[in-house]
Design brief:
This protein is 44% helix and 16% strand. The chain has 447 residues and is α+β, with helices and mostly antiparallel strands. The protein has three domains: 52 residues, Transferase, Pyrimidine Nucleoside Phosphorylase, Chain C (Transferase, Pyrimidine Nucleoside Phosphorylase, Chain A, domain 3, Up-down Bundle), CATH 1.20.970.10; 230 residues, Nucleoside phosphorylase/phosphoribosyltransferase catalytic domain (Pyrimidine Nucleoside Phosphorylase, Chain A, domain 2, 3-Layer(aba) Sandwich); 88 residues, Pyrimidine nucleoside phosphorylase-like, C-terminal domain (Aldehyde Oxidoreductase, domain 3), CATH 3.90.1170.30. Helix 10 links the parallel strand 4 and strand 5. Helix 4 packs parallel to helix 9 and helix 5 packs across helix 14. Bound molecules: uracil. The site of uracil (URA) has 6 residues, from helix 9. Uracil binds next to helix 9.
Length: 447
């Protein structure tokens, strides 16, 4: 039986099952056939599982990525001046850095065409956060995407059907066949969407720890290496920061609550950890965009963009362009009356040693800030506001968090789920910096 372009799909499955290697042409034909609906899900599932169990070599990964990129439209922004730079995070709890750094970088003259995702599992998504701004639209056709990038140097939208459609089909299949947690698939999935975006450089934030998609640091290092090396092979300058996601980033977790924190950050009052990661990633983007000549210069430029109000002005421009109510970000507290809130109190005296990001993320999802199922809608106002951070001493009965949502229905239930996230002790060690390492040009800074 032959499949697309004369390949025998059963032969490919058998070869991979027997630990053999597939050629680039075979992989290309296979992905093309699947995208066109000519190869059934059950055969693709078998091949995915055989690859998952027996591994893929570098050439196979390149073939997979290439065919996934070419499964849809590959954008070309070469007519727009400047090096186009994007950032991708492997996802975290309270990670709102994209929404802060994109206006910072764009306001320094580096065009940022950003395509982001929705919340996945216990991690939040940039699109859901942006859409919590009343009226903000993240859906746009490629033509409008291009013209907004040209006009204001910044555009933030969701995945379109035109870009890397193979990933959409494959991701849905991986999700139900136990083949998600495999570095070659993850790398091809992330990069196919990013490299089809028409960018010259990509800055990656690869996270590890309880709140990250890859909790183990060594796995996260391997993912960072694979992503960076593959990106470079496809001609996109790629650098990765390895960051700690064991505890929630900043104080706010949830869509509108995080936008509130973004607003504070862009006014220069952001939490230390959020600003550390945001400024580091922004300076990498400024360096990759050749607006800065060094990381230090990039850092100063990013700080100055905030201090001068330029980054905030760019954010207002973005919100206004994409249909959002600028008034709502100018006076965010006006929406406070639309939500219910309960307080979480410390059950004992002691030092907060750790706040488990995964528990906080899951609590926020069940509160309505994320989705249990793909079809679920999110409550834009739902979220958890931490009042403490690791290393802080608290007394029994002191306020340690508040839980907020549009209706009071789920508030009490979330309290029970959230409390175990707070780990108390007498004295404990905790990391000061979230940034653990940097990978570029095949080397780690702190191996
Ligand atoms: N994010 C993606 O886009 N793809 C994966 O496979 C995993 C995380």
């Amino acid at each position: 039986m032959s499949g697309h372009k004369g390949i025998n799909i059963i032969d490919l499955i058998l070869r991979k099952r027997n630990k053999g290697v597939l050629s680039r042409d075979e992989i290309v034909a296979f992905i093309e056939g699947y995208t066109l609906g000519q190869i059934p899900d059950y055969q693709v599932s078998a091949l995915l599982m055989a690859s998952f169990l027996n591994g893929m070599n570098e050439d196979e990964m390149v073939g997979l990525l290439e065919s996934m990129i070419n499964s849809g439209e590959v954008l070309d922004f070469s007519d727009i001046p400047g090096r186009k730079v994007d950032k991708h995070s492997t996802g975290g709890v309270g990670d709102k850095t994209s929404i802060i750094l994109a206006p910072i970088v764009a306001s320094c003259g580096v065009p940022v065409p950003m395509i982001s995702g929705r919340g996945l599992g216990h991690t939040g998504g940039t699109l859901d956060k942006l859409e919590s701004i009343p009226g903000f639209s993240t859906q746009m056709n490629v033509q409008d995407y291009r013209s907004q990038l040209k006009e204001i140097g910044l555009v933030m939208i969701g995945q379109t059907d035109e870009i890397a459609p193979a990933d959409k089909k494959l991701y849905a299949l991986r999700d139900v066949t136990g083949t998600v947690e495999f570095i070659p698939f993850i790398a091809a999935s992330i990069l196919s969407k990013k490299l089809a975006e028409g960018i010259n450089a990509l800055v990656l934030d690869v996270k590890f720890g309880s709140g990250a998609f890859m909790s183990d640091e060594q796995d996260a290092r391997k993912l960072a290496e694979t992503l960076t090396n593959l990106g470079e092979r496809f001609g996109t300058d790629t650098v990765a920061l390895l960051t700690d996601m064991d505890q929630p980033m900043g104080y706010a977790v949830g869509n509108w609550p995080e936008i509130n924190e973004v607003i504070s950050c862009l006014h220069g009052h952001g939490p230390q950890d959020v600003m550390e990661v945001t400024l580091a990633l922004a300076s990498e983007m400024l360096l990759a965009g050749r607006a800065a000549n060094s990381i230090d210069e990039g850092l100063s430029m990013a700080e100055e963009a905030i201090d001068s109000g330029r980054a905030w002005a760019k954010f207002e421009e973005l919100v206004q362009k994409q249909g959002g109510a600028v008034e709502s970000i100018r006076q965010p507290h006006k929406r406070d009356v639309d939500r219910k809130e309960i307080e979480v109190l410390a059950p004992c005296d002691g030092m907060i040693c750790r706040i488990d990001a995964k528990i906080v993320g899951r609590s926020a999802v069940s509160l309505g800030a994320g989705r249990m199922q793909k079809e679920d809608s999110v409550d834009p106002l739902a979220g958890i506001i931490l009042k403490v951070s690791a290393g802080q001493m608290v007394s029994k009965g002191e306020k340690i968090a508040s839980i907020q949502a549009t209706t009071s229905e789920r508030l009490e239930r979330t309290m029970d789920q959230l409390l175990p996230a707070f780990e108390f002790g007498e004295e404990c060690e905790f990391r000061i910096s979230r940034i653990k390492d940097r990978y570029a040009d095949g080397t780690w800074l702190n191996p």
